Amino acid sequence: MQLIPALAVERRRIVLLAPGSGFVPEVFRKVQVHKTLHQSLVAGAQRLRGHVYLSDGAIEQRDLSQDGRHVQDADDKSWFVLTVRGAAEVVGCARYRPHAPHVQFDELSVSRSALARSPLWGQRLRAAVQADITDAHHRRLSYVEVGGWALASDVRCTTEALRIALSMYTLARLLNGALGITTVTTRHHSCSILRRLGGRSLLDDGVELPSYFDPVYKCEMEILRFDSASPNPRFESWLDNFRGSLMNVPVICGGAAREWCAIPSGVAPAGRLPNLRPEQHPAPAPNNGVLVHAG
């Protein structure tokens, strides 16, 4: 099934997937409802994660579905930022999960991390996260967890790592702002990329929480916080450019329009990703890193 016009076969583009329930703001101009396409792209992201994480030794074969997908409960409740190439081949992905305003620490994925179980650091992590949840509530922001990062090996030394990270910041802004966290591996320069964009270590009473070894994913991890209103200032102009770009990327919903999406006029035909012009995707400066997150 050809999902993208033939002229765009080799072009990499950003595509957004709406969560399994919720409202898609009218700021997004190219919303389409297509359950099969939505399921196919989610499966593509899960399959990419499965392949990358397995290759990195972060998971084992038994952690995957029979068709090679790395499936997590958060997938159905999250937005996805995807890099799609050709006929809907997913070569990059990240997950953005907004939580309810009064979410508690024990409801978060980070509560199941090795650091949360640490006798020395567990309570500090809880206090730091709960303080940010309270801050987000007072500022009327969403509290979010970002994860599920992965890039195919053949696009790791391109701009896609930075493009996906900037798209996540921009998505947060288009969804009225967010304060949140991500657990990120130190592999492939992932932490350094996010820190350059504005990610910061969590603090409890002025004490910085450390990195830690995660026995599940068999790697060194860090928990970083981010505020969509306070990125690294050097990237502010880039984010302004990305705002215009992200408003015009395909947003794929998986359910009935009245239940899922506020669809503006001029919606693209179902089952077909719009053929976007190359200039609608600002190209960040090249880097040698890749965002690969095992959470």
Notable features of this structure?
26% helix; 23% strand; Aminopeptidase; disordered N terminus; ten-stranded mixed sheet; 295 residues; alpha+beta; disordered C terminus; two-stranded antiparallel sheet; 12 strands
Account of the 3D structure:
The strands form 2 sheets. Strands 1, 2, 3, 4, 5, 6, 7, 10, 11 and 12 form a 10-stranded mixed sheet that branches. The chain is of the alpha+beta class and 295 residues long. The longest helix has 22 residues, at 35-56. The chain has 6 helices and 12 strands. The model is unreliable at 1-9, 256-272 and 274-295 (pLDDT under 50). α3 (160-174) crosses α5 (236-246). β8 and β9 form a beta hairpin. 26% of the residues lie in helices and 23% in strands. The chain has a single domain (6-280), classed as Gcn5-related N-acetyltransferase (GNAT) (Aminopeptidase), CATH 3.40.630. The protein starts with 11 loop residues before the first strand and ends in a 35-residue tail after the last helix. The chain is globular and about 50 Å long.
Estimate the strand proportion: 15-25%
Give the C-level CATH assignment.
Answer: Alpha Beta
For the terminal residues, how far apart are their CA atoms? Answer: 32 Å
User: Averaging pLDDT over every residue, what do you get?
Assistant: 84
Helix count from the secondary structure assignment:
6
Main pleated-sheet profile: 10 strands, mixed
Oligomer state equals single chain
Structural class label: alpha+beta
Taken from the alpha-carbon principal axes, the silhouette is: globular
Q: Please compute the radius of gyration using only Cα atoms.
A: 18 Å
User: What's the CATH architecture name?
Assistant: 3-Layer(aba) Sandwich
Helix content, binned percent: 25-40%
Compute the number of structural domains. Answer: 1
CATH superfamily: Gcn5-related N-acetyltransferase (GNAT)
**Counted beta strands:** 12
Spans of at least 5 consecutive residues with low confidence: 1-9, 256-272, 274-295
The SSE string, one letter per element, is EEHEEHEHEHEEEEEHEH
Q: What is the third-level CATH name, the topology?
A: Aminopeptidase
